[in-house]
Amino acid sequence: MMNLEKIKEQIRKISALAGDAGATEEEAENALRFARRLMLKNNLRPEDLEEPKDVNEIAADADAVEYGTAKAYSSSRGLSQWEASLAAAIDKLLGTTQHYKEYVQAKRTASGSLDFDSKTGKTKSATPVVFYGPAEDCRDAVELFAEWSHVIAGLARLKYGGAMKGDGRCYAEGFASGLYRKIRDIRKEENETAQKDRALLEGSERCTALIVVNATAVMEAKKERGSIFLRKELGIKLRAGSRGGGRRHWNGNAFSAGQADGSRANFNRSRTGKLTG
């Protein structure tokens, strides 16, 4: 399935064909009819089809994108394997963010205030997951992490009584794995579709001068600029982390059940690029 930017580019190319001096009246009418159908299907207006900037221009324009960090927190004191996998899945989905984890510290709410345990009155401790990259995307990543960690933990508790140990942890790990695999497959399908469309359009003599905007290149450029921001602006140099210890309990059936549920998660990328339950 093509993302919205690729659909816009396709409409621009079809419209250009309709206005080509070498096109017959019937070809022009068919092209315009198809372009209008695509616009209606994807709820696009003429002003939405303005030509995007060149990929290099977008990446190099420091004023066009604000870079920053945003912090999410683990459900318990330590960061579980499924939460780490969830963070990686979110990075894969957004395409512009990356993350690292910090040491255990006092947990804070979305407003920045300390988060207290309602039963003991003590401050909660948690492991922060710090997303970095375009500031707006980092905020989206934190929201997604909070939403989906809540969903995964809730399903694990419902089916297995918990999400941090035993069968429930296996289920949660499977869910995060299924989620990541689905996002990876969507990205792969988009790239393959884009390559086919590019070959089709460039195969026409009337399309050889048209520029195909590569959304993947834009995302990669923003990721690189996010890394530069982290290193130069914040003075943070990351190093490879170590994996957790071996599992003391493993239930392959619970993992498979979670993976199946994660692979069925729904996405709504045409408006916000976010996951939806």
Proportion of beta-strand residues: 5-15%
Return Rg in Å.
22 Å
Structural class by helix and strand composition? mainly alpha
Q: How far apart are the first and last residues' alpha carbons, in Å?
A: 19 Å
Give a short account of the largest sheet. Answer: 3 strands, antiparallel
Unreliable stretches covering 5 or more consecutive residues: 201-213, 268-277
Question: What is the assembly state of the chains in this entry?
Answer: single chain
Q: Residue-averaged pLDDT, rounded?
A: 79
The percentage helix is 40-55%
In total, the number of domains comes to 2
* Strand order in the sheet with the most strands: 1-5-2
Question: How many individual β-strands?
Answer: 7
Globally, the shape reads: elongated
Q: How many helical stretches? A: 8
Instruction: Give the SSE order as H and E letters.
Output: HHHEHEEEEHHHHEE
